[in-house]
Amino acid sequence: MAEHALRRERRTGNLSLIVAVPVALVSIAPLLWALISSLRAGDEIFAHLYPLTWRTVVPESVSLDNYVAVLTGPFAMSLVNSVIVAFFSVTIGLFVAAMAGFALAALDFPGRGAVFALMVVSFLIPFEAIAIPLSTSFRDWGLANTYAGLILPAIGNGLSIFLLRQFFLGIPTSLSEAARLDGLSWFGVFWRIYLPLSKAPLVGAGLILFVFQWQSFLWPLLIAPAPSVRVAPVAIADFAQEAGVDYGQMFAGAILASAIPLILLLMFQRQFTNSLASSGSKE
Amino acid sequence: MRARLLRRAAAAAAGLAVVAGCAAAPAGDGPETIVFLNPHAGAYDAVIAEFEARNPDVRVEQQSVPFDQMVSQTQARLASGDTSVDVVSVDPPRLAGMVAQGFLTDESASEDLLESTSSQVGINSVTVDGRPWAYPLWTSDAFLFYNRDALTRAGVPLPGPSDADRLTWDQVLDGARKVSEAGTARYGFGIEQVDRYYALQPILESMGAGPGLEGPDELTPAVDTEQWRQFAHWYRDLYADGLAPRGVDPGQMPELFASGQVGFFLTGASGIGRAAGSDLAGNWGIAPAPYAAGGPVVTPTDSWGVGISAYSEKQEAARRFARFVTLDPQGVIAASQEMTLPPVATAAMPAYLDYLDEVAPDETAGVGELLETDLERYARHRPTSVGYVQFETTMNRAFGDLRNGADVDAVLAGAQATLTRQLDRQRELAGDR
Amino acid sequence: MATPLREPAPARERTAGPPTPSPRRRRTSRDVWTAALFFLAPAVVALLALRIIPTLSAVGTSIPFGTDRALLSNFSYIFSDPDFLGSLRVTLLFSLVVNPIQIGLALALAVLLTKKLPAVGLWRTLILLPIAVPQAVSAIIWLVLMRPDGPLNGVANALGLPSVPWLVSPDVALASIVIVCSWVGVGYWMTFLVTGIRDIPTSLYEASSIDGANGWQQFRSITLPGLRRPLLFVLVADTVSNLLIFAPVRVLTQGGPQGSTNMIMYDISERAYTLGDTQAASAGTLVLVAIVVVIVAIQFRLLPGKD
C-alpha cells in the first residue's frame, strides 16, 4: 500500500473522531445527567434544572444514599432476576433462532418460503397487543410467576431468525456441499461450519434477544408480579408512587440496570474485533 | 422491645375479637396463601406482618404494581378471570365499573360492621346500588400548601389554617401573581394532581359547573356547558402567562414545591409527609382548599379501598384480611402512616392525627379540625358511573390540552363528542352481556 | 480460507420482481426433510404458540359472535372513531419521518465507526448504550429533560437559542418523540450495519484506493452494494419497530397535545388496558398487523437483498 494512502487513512481517522466523540457524548448525555442526579441528596435534583448553571451538572454534595437504598431494597433481587431471565433468553433463544436461520438459508426444501413468511409475520405482531390473552394461557399452563413464564416469549423471536438467515445466506452452499460429501451430518455443518463463521451476526442476534427481554415491561407485570420473580424495569417503575416519585432511587436503578449491559457490550466489542481480524484473513 | 411486643399482642387480641370474630384456623395443612394486588409498594408491609402474626393459617403475598399501571393490571387480570388474585385495591370511582363487570364480591354481610367502625363518607365511597362492594381504607382531602418564605418576601399575607380563613380563588391567584412578579418563587401557583379530574372537580363545582356526567346512571356527558367553558378559560389562563408550570407531570409536582419553586400549591394529605421530609421543612404551611367567590365550598374525597375478587378461591381468608387492613385500628394506622392518608375507620383517626403532629407539628396544627369539617360539610364524591374510566381518561386528556393552550371551545366540544361515542359504545357492549 | 465468503453483488444487480425458483432445485431428499424438520421445529412451535395463535384468537375476539351486532361492527366502530383515524395519520407521518432519519444516521455512523480510529469500540458502545436502559425509565429521564423549564431548554438558552416547547406544543411534540426514539434506536441499528460493513473484504477497498477512488465513490460502489442484506434487515426491522412504538408515548405525552402523538399502538393499548374494550383493541390490532404486513411486503418486493 502506498505511503500516502496510509497517511490519508490516519487523517480521515482523526476527522472521524471529531464527529464520533460528540455523537457519543450526545448519546450518553441523558444518562450522565441521570447518573449525576442519582448522586444528589434530597430534593436537589429539581432545584437546579433551569436555567443552565454549573450547578446543573455539579452536585452540591455527592451522596451514595440512593444506591445504598436501592441495593438493600427489593430492587437488588429484581436485578438478579433480570440477569437470570436475560441469560436464558439469549442462550436458548439464540440456539433456536440459529437452527431455524440455518434451515432457512442452507436447506433447500419445498415450503421454505412459507416458513420464512411465518417467521417474518411473527415479528410484525405487536406483542403488547396479544399479551393479555397470552398471559391467560400462561396462567392456565402454570407459568405465572415463574422464570419460564418470563423467558418463553423471548424464545419465539422472528427478528433474530430473520437476521441470522440474512447472514447465513452469504455463506456459499459449496462449503456445506463439500462437507456433506465428506460425511459431515447436517448438524455438523451447522455447528462446525455455519456457527464459527457467524460470530458477529450471532452477537447481533443475541443483542436482539437481550434487548427484547431487558426492555420488557408490560409482560412481566402481567405474568410475574410476585416479588420473588420481579424484574428490574418493573421494580424501577415502583419508585413512582402515588404520593410522589423517588427520582433519586429511580435514576440510581436505571444506572445500575444499564451498567450490566454496558459491561457486556464492552466485552462483546472484543468479539466484534475478533471478527474484524478474521475477516481480514478471509482473503 | 419486649414491652412493645406484649402491647402489640394485647391490641392484636382485642382487635381480632372486634373485627373478625376469631376465625378458627383450619387444622392440618400449611398456611393458606392469599394474593393482594395493590399499587402501594411497601405501604402494607407492617399491616401484613401484624395480620400474619395473628392469623398463622394465612400468608399474604403482595403483588404491588406501579401506581399508573394499577387500573390496567386490574382490568387485564380480573377480566380474564384470574383466580390467583384474592384481594385487590379499589379506587372508589371505578367501583361501579368493576361491579358491573362482576369483578368483586357483594359485602352486604358486613354492612353493620362498616356502620359501627367507619365514617359515612367512607362507606358511601364503596357503595353501589345501595350495597357495599369493598372495604374503605382511606379518604382524602385537598389543602392549599404555601411556601412561607416566598409569600413573605413578596409581601403576600400568609393564609390562616381554619375553615373561617378559607381564601377565594381570586385571592389565591392575586397572591400567586405577586409571588411570580417578585420572583420569590418561579411559579406563583401549582396543582399537584395537575390535569386530573380528581383535583379539578371541586374547582369546577365551586364555580357552579356540574360534575360532567349526568342522568340517572350518570352516563350522559355534559362537559360543553357555559360553566365548564368558564372553568376551562380559567384553567387555561393559569398557564398562559407562566403563573403555573406547563409540561410538568403530577409525578414531578411535589418535587417542584419541595425545591421551593412554587408559592401556592394545591395538594392533598399525602403531600404532608413529602413536604415535611423535604428541604422546605419549617418553611411551609397548610391552608384550606380555596373556593370560588359566590360559589359553594367543595372539597374532594375518597381514596383507595380494599375489595375481594369474585374469582378468588380463598374468599374467607381474603375477607379476614380485607377487614383487618381497613377496620382494625392497628392495621389501619400502620397503612395510613406510610401513605400519610387519613383513615376511614373512625377509631384510627386520633392515632393518624398524632402521627401528623409528630411529622409536622406546627404546619398540621389545624389539620384535624379542617379534615373533619371538609369531610362532613364539603366533600363531593366523583360520579358513580360504569363509564367513569372513559370519562376520566377523556377529561384528563382534555385538561392537559387546555393547560397546553388549546382552544377552549374545540377541546370541550371534542371531549363531549368523544364521551358520547365512548359511552354509547359502553352501552352497546353491555347489551351483549 | 482462500475464497471471499461474500462476493458483494455489483450495484446493477438490483433485481426486483418476484423471486424465481432456485435453479439448483432438485428432488428434495428424505435426509433434507428430516434435517429441516429438526432445525425448524423448535422455532416454528414457539412462534405458533406465542405469536400466531394468540393473534388468531384476536380475530375471534374482534368478531362479536352470539350477539345482535354485525360481524364487522367492531371494525366499523374503530373506523368511525376520529381518535383511531387520527392515530393512523400520526403513525404514518411518524414513520415517514423517523425511518429515513434513523437509517440514514445509523448508516453514516456505521461507516464512520468502521474506520480506523482510536478507541472505536468505546464510541460504538456509548452510542449503543441508550437501548440498554429500560424504555419505561429512559422516557422518564427525557420527560424531565424536555420540560419547558428543563435542562434541554437551559442548554438551548445558554447557546443563545429560544426555548422549545418540546412536549407541550402539538406542532413540536411528534418531533420530540422522533428525537427520543432515534436516541434509543440509532445506535442499535448502527450495530447491525457495522457488522455488515465488517464482512465486506478490505481488499475491495484497497484495490479501489489504488485506482484512486474517493470515499464517496467507495461508499457507492462497494459499501452500499455489500450491505444490501443487512440493510434490508435494518430497514424492515426498524420500520416494524417504529410502527409498533408506544412506551415513550405512554410516558411522555399520552398521545397529546391534541392527539398529535397518538400513535396507533398507544391507541390500541389504551383501549385494551385502560378502557377494557378488548373487542375494539383486537380489531385495531388486526388492522395494524395488516398495515405492517403490506408495508413489509412492499419493502421485500422493491429492495435487493432478500435472497
UniProtKB/TrEMBL annotation, chain A:
Q: Which Pfam families match?
A: BPD_transp_1
Residue spans crossing the bilayer: 12-36, 83-107, 114-135, 147-168, 189-212, 247-268
Q: According to Swiss-Prot or TrEMBL, what is its membrane topology? A: Multi-pass membrane protein
Question: Which residues lie in coiled coils?
Answer: none
Q: Where is the ABC transmembrane type-1 domain?
A: 79-268
Know the name of this protein? Carbohydrate ABC transporter permease
Classification lineage: Bacteria, Bacillati, Actinomycetota, Actinomycetes, Pseudonocardiales
Q: Where in the cell is it found?
A: Cell membrane
Q: Which family does it belong to?
A: Belongs to the binding-protein-dependent transport system permease family.
Write down the superkingdom of origin: Bacteria
The keyword Cell membrane belongs to this UniProt entry's keyword annotation: yes
Q: Which UniProt keywords apply?
A: Cell membrane, Membrane, Transmembrane, Transmembrane helix, Transport
From TrEMBL, chain B:
> Does the keyword field hold Signal?
yes
Secretion signal: which residues?
A: 1-27
What SUPFAM superfamilies does the record tag this protein with? Periplasmic binding protein-like II
Alphabetically ordered keywords of this record = Signal
Domain of life of the native organism: Bacteria
Q: List the protein's name.
A: Sugar ABC transporter substrate-binding protein
Please name the taxonomic classification of the source: Bacteria, Bacillati, Actinomycetota, Actinomycetes, Pseudonocardiales
TrEMBL record, chain C:
Q: Where is this region: Disordered?
A: 1-28
Q: Where in the cell is it found?
A: Cell membrane
Task: Write down the InterPro entries for this protein, in alphabetical order.
Answer: ABC_transporter_permease, MetI-like, MetI-like_sf
Membrane-spanning ranges: 32-53, 92-114, 126-145, 172-194, 230-249, 280-303
Enumerate the UniProt keywords alphabetically.
Cell membrane, Membrane, Transmembrane, Transmembrane helix, Transport
Could you tell me which PROSITE patterns the record lists for this protein? ABC_TM1 (PS50928)
One short Pfam family name for this protein? BPD_transp_1
Superkingdom of origin organism: Bacteria
Q: What protein am I looking at?
A: Sugar ABC transporter permease
